[in-house]
């Protein structure tokens, strides 16, 4: 789709010497400050860290990570500079989708611990200024949830309408052609009542009927339950899928088949229906009724900036909708990053950008962006990109160590059901969910047990927290450094952001400037395997001196803006005056 060019918003003269002999001048438009730091809620400056609890730290030797394990590692997170952890579901669940199939929304699964463990985690985290964000799986429950058991028990059960039940089109024929995201029909026949129920995801994950006010009330109560226990907000799962077309129009079929052998389909009638926004406004009212600015983060695989912008509402819906477009660039293209960063920076809702590169559903960034030769350096480059823009950054556990995707080798070892169905084209998501690499002892320090739910990758011998904390040049210490700069350098903390526009596919450069203090920082990312020598004229930003202080790397401490040399996949963060 067409994306608006943003060159008119650029403020500087910029040229690149040696590598790209191009020189452009841009008119300076009036500037609107995007930050008002004195009123900023905490989440605007937070570094959010996603924890997949099964894989972070096992405290009791059963081979599965747990809440007490997380609590025992808060010191590490604090040392890294993390402000908030989002923990993926730890509620009672048959674990078909490893917790995203919830049997009881207001309890803790015994394999993860107890409610007292959760309370202790929140209070211990608070001592270290770390907030706890809870996963809110609104679209569907487990088929083992008491609500669904009642609902399926008879056609006239009071909870029948809590889920989406329909008659088949004919004998053996589902109500329409809707497909599950995880393969096969989105409808499953339940023989006792001879009707089909709808599930966007697995058969064991029936969709709640959000058109039913009782469902809405019950799910709003779930939010209040966790806010009352000290949650600092929610990451809302699969939120664009809350509603389906009540008239059950067939979805358009696209050419080709997916990894599960199903026809490709446009989820036109089951995704992004406008009704979603009515519910988002209610969610927002609930969090806004609590002190401390609890935050809503949405998982929303929005296809473009206009859909993403809608998630903010008029500052009455989601504060931090995840930007999947940036996560999905999947190559070191300065041009693509520049365009997407500009788009979200400039979103017409005035919302705070929020993005990430890795999570529990995506192959890790190490593999997606690494070139196989410079991966450590590229890990640092991606850290800089994540942590030096205006966006609230979201990290995934182990990203700060350079953890990589380690897929199962044999089909019989696959745990994620989509990996069994899609093997070998889609090996599922086990590869990005392997145990955290703490040290090089048994099981990388993840568990004292002998039966881990997923094996520890071989890379743990070299890439582990203990070794990296000690090594000043490690990926860990690079993250730690940039996080601390983000917190302490006014331009990086509060500054506006201007992409320096030039037609270089491979060098991304931007200026952050704090209008209050005039503190100004230049960030340069060389996304190529070649050295680059670059020249910057930043006079349009009020920069008078042609040399600046190099914040990263630490030496040489002074750099000349007439000749900044950046090594392959190198970064420069320069404070200019
Ligand atoms: O994922 C929702 C979802 O639709 C993802 O497939 C997403 O669109 C995709 O990863 C984008 O690349 C959430 C959870 O994150 C996932 O782990 C669950 O399996 C799923 O919901 C069902 O609860
Ligand atoms: Ca355990």
Tell me what the structure shows.
The chain has an 8-stranded parallel sheet. It contains 15 helices and 23 strands. α5 (213-228) runs parallel beside α6 and α11 runs parallel beside α14. The longest helix is centred in the middle third of the chain and has 16 residues, at 213-228. The two termini are 39 Å apart. By secondary structure, the protein is an alpha/beta fold. The radius of gyration is 24 Å and the shape is globular. The structure holds 1-O-alpha-D-glucopyranosyl-D-fructose and calcium ion. The site of calcium ion has 6 residues, from loops.
Could you tell me the number of beta strands? 23
* Number of distinct helices: 15
| Low-confidence segments | 1-37
Distance between the termini: 39 Å
Morphology: globular
Q: What fraction of residues sit in β-strands? A: 15-25%
Query: Roughly what is the average pLDDT, rounded to an integer?
Result: 93
- Main beta-sheet strand count, sense and barrel state: 8 strands, parallel
Ligand identities: 1-O-alpha-D-glucopyranosyl-D-fructose, calcium ion
Radius of gyration: 24 Å
Structural class: alpha/beta
**Which quaternary structure do these chains form?**
single chain
Q: Within the largest sheet, what's the order of strands?
A: 13-12-9-5-4-3-15-14
Query: Percentage of helical residues?
Result: 10-25%
Defining key terms:
single chain; alpha/beta; eight-stranded parallel beta sheet; 15 helices; globular; disordered N terminus; binds 1-O-alpha-D-glucopyranosyl-D-fructose; binds calcium ion
